[in-house]
């Protein structure tokens, strides 16, 4: 089982470059795909996914954040 950190993503279109990330929480799953499904099920309602440039992303975490 791996631990995955779930982030809310918002693209910065109005003059800013890149994206802003807001940590939503963690999920535990054996693989990236399983973690992605869990994250979508648990956090999609918080991520404004119906708006362009917004959604969620997950990053594997082992104690410290690993990208």
What does this structure look like?
This protein has one helix and four strands. A hairpin with a 1-residue loop joins strand 3 and strand 4. Strands 2-1-3-4 form a four-stranded antiparallel beta sheet. The C terminus is likely disordered. The protein has a single domain, classed as Ubiquitin-like (UB roll). The longest helix is centred in the middle third of the chain and has 12 residues. The radius of gyration is 12 Å and the shape is elongated. The two termini are 18 Å apart. Helices cover 18% and strands 48% of the residues. With 67 residues, it is of the alpha+beta class.
Write the layout of secondary structure elements.
Elements (H helix, E strand, L loop, with lengths): L1 E10 L7 E11 L2 H12 L10 E9 L1 E2 L2
């Amino acid at each position: 089982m791996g631990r995955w950190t779930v982030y809310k993503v918002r693209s910065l279109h109005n003059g800013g470059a890149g994206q802003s990330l807001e940590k939503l929480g963690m999920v535990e799953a054996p693989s990236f795909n399983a973690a992605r499904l869990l994250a979508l099920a648990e956090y999609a309602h918080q991520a404004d996914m119906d708006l362009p440039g917004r959604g969620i992303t997950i990053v594997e975490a082992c104690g410290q954040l690993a990208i």
